[in-house]
Amino acid sequence: MDVGFSFSVLSVGHGDCILIQGGFDGQHRNILIDGGPAKAYTYRNRSGELKKALQKIKDEEQRIDLLILTHVDDDHIGGLLAGFKNGGLLEQLTDKVWFNSGKLIFEHFDHEYDDTNLLDFEQLRTGTAIDNQTSIRQGVKFEEYISRRGIWQHDVILAGQVNELFGIKFTMLSPNEENLEKLLFKWQREQPDSLTSSADTDYDKTFNELLENDKFKEDNSVHNGSSIAFVFEYKGKRLLFLGDAHSKVIVESLKNLNFSNTLKLKVDYVKLSHHGSQYNTSPELLCLLDCQNFIVSTDSRRHGLPNKVTLARINDQFSRTNLWFNYPEIIESKIFSQSELQQLNNEGMRFNACESPFVL
Q: CB neighbours (10 Å) of residue 197?
């Protein structure tokens, strides 16, 4: 019997790792979205949050019924690789994987697979690899793991698709064909001005100051553009998991589904794209949503994320909002002053900790 479900945003540093658990279609299921960086599994011989969660699942004689890797950035794939390595818990527990691998993308666009520019492990060992190439190599290794185990659903995932599994409806919003095809040429280094994030922060400014001259610029990272994003819907409950997807692609997908400023997509929770980066959450996207709960997944130790202007845009669009942080200490210690928090609280914005699973 279905008894509802919950989801947890695991504390895995600067990365994403989300675990959905509960009764789906008459059985208990576990769905894992991304795995954070490698330390999410083990760090200095200690179990990370991902490994602890997997061990509990194993102890309760359950499975990872579905694993979704949104894209190959290290802060999403690193923990998964660690969990599959040397017969790890993911190797033991995982039954099905959704992942747009390099080979799958080449097949989809009918291009001959070319791995001549992939890194060799000497570059990885000596640290001479640049980040985006390292992620490509990680994606190839992940494909090897899941191919060998026979758990990979060998179908490309694209915006506009609707997949149903365990009674759950997955409406895919990203990637689109254009952004996925760019991965064919991803072996070349991204331009230095790639708009993904920055080490600088905007935390010294108020919401009003940030919005005064706010002009949205789109993330142009090829990796992020390839990110899987989707609406998760089960028995009237809707969750929006955005991975690191581009805002423009999500807007386009929602409009193709006939959502608009007057007919908005109503969801219970939104996991903000790319850890709250200002380049991935546009005012246009927010205008298409009807939601009061927005989740920020990061410890804020890298890239100055979340950007405060993203939170300002949310506050500007919605009269009452709950912001949820899986590292709540950054609310006061980094982003806001006490007086700001009090003022925003009076205006209807609440700041919360993801200390326990969200129950729906």
A: 25
d(CA 115, CA 221): 21
Residue type present at position 207: F
User: What is the number of H-type helices and E-type strands within the chain?
Assistant: 14, 18
User: CA 107 to CA 93: how far, in whole Å?
Assistant: 28
CA angle, 105 as apex, 101 and 108 as ends, to 5°?
Answer: 140
Summarize pLDDT for 296-355 with one digit per residue, the tens: 999 998 778 999 999 999 999 998 999 999 999 999 989 999 999 999 999 999 999 998
331 secondary structure, DSSP code = I
- Please spell the DSSP secondary structure of 107-121, one letter per residue: HHTT-----TTSPPH
Determine if the pTM surpasses 0.70: yes
In the chain, the domains with their CATH numbers are 5-359 (3.60.15.10)
Distance CA 331, CA 296 (A): 11
CB 40 within 8 A of CB 76: no
Start-to-end Cα distance in the chain: 15
Token representation of residue 66: 């579905």
User: pLDDT, tens digit, for every residue of 114-138?
Assistant: 554 443 333 433 343 444 445 778 8
**Bridge partners of residue 31, in order along the sequence:** 20, 66
325 and 305 in contact (C-beta within 8 Å)?
no
